[in-house]
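Page 47, continued from p. 46.
Same chain as before, 403 aa.
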Amino acid sequence: MQIHPLITKSEDLAALCDRLSHAEFVAVDTEFMRENTYWPELCLVQIADTKEAAAIDPLAPGLDLQPLWDLLTDNEDVLKVFHAGGQDVEIIFNFTGRTPHPIFDTQIAAMAISQSEQIGYSNLVESWLGLTIDKGARFTDWSRRPLTERQIEYAIGDVTHLAKIFPRMLKRLIKTDRGQWLDQEMEKLADPENYRNDPTVAWKRIKAAGRNAGVLGRLKALAAWREQEARGKNIPRGRIARDETLADIASHPPKSQADLAKVRGLSAGWKDNEIGKRLMQAIADSQPLPDEELPSRTPRGAPLGKEGSLVADLLKLLLKIRAREIDVASRLLARSEELELLAAGVRKDLAMLEGWRFKTFGKDALDLVEGKLAFAVVDGRLKMTHVDDAVVAEAEQNADPAD
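Result:
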């Protein structure tokens, strides 16, 4: 594979992207800094196909990145391959308002052919290529120039290894006939709605107890206010105020700006400065959250009563057994919160009750909840066995009406 020198000129980048536009796939990775800013600062882009690889310096003066963005977001003939690519896709979206498509994520794909829940890149490389990655350059300052040869070599390795792993992984997926399992997951990763940083929905990322419309309305207003403050200053939102602080203010709103000095997590100076004034205005302008925006009520105890938590535990055990049997990551089949909802009586809007997940796991999960599936030990291994319908009917007839 040909490794190009660091690309800093527009004509070199345009020529590279033109060649890569005819490839079947390109492996893509980015290096960025976001510890001290609201927006992640893109410091390097690495890209490769099976023939060539290059690192691109987006901080190079005068470098026109448009050919790169066109390749990644407009060319539907080239598959874009990432590993744990959520943050990479977010950065591309921030620059273009679009996401790479079509897309393939090797971390997600690994879940369909092994029991690895969220395999890291170094472990992926070691597992598929038998190579050990030098992680020494991983946490360097990617914004500092000039970049060292060690940094560039490390960065390009991320895509050259990925370009070798992807075809092998694809063959395994085809062999196991699980490629279609991943279509929905990849489309979710490429959905632009996941990356639109809308201040009006920022409150949904903050953990808040209850469904009080007034409290949640204040939380919505406070979260939007924090987003605007952080954006304007280009600093992490947590440096304005932490999630817990906003939730506390929403639940116990200060009566005056002077009371902000008593709020844990805020500087005493907020009692009479401009940012404190803007916070108080956000509270004053808040409105109770409309009914249609309130979090849905989760049915608790019906129809399982006090046994719901035990049923959820059995569902989690069933999930582990099924994942082991077919050698997939359990998280790909269902998440713990879904199992708890199923145990609580929810039957709608659960991914495990749709499509291939239903055939692979969801149907058995329903059968377990409805008493049609039981556990058994066979040759020292825990397995599932279906219960005869007559046995189920008899059990229902003999059930205590008070249960």
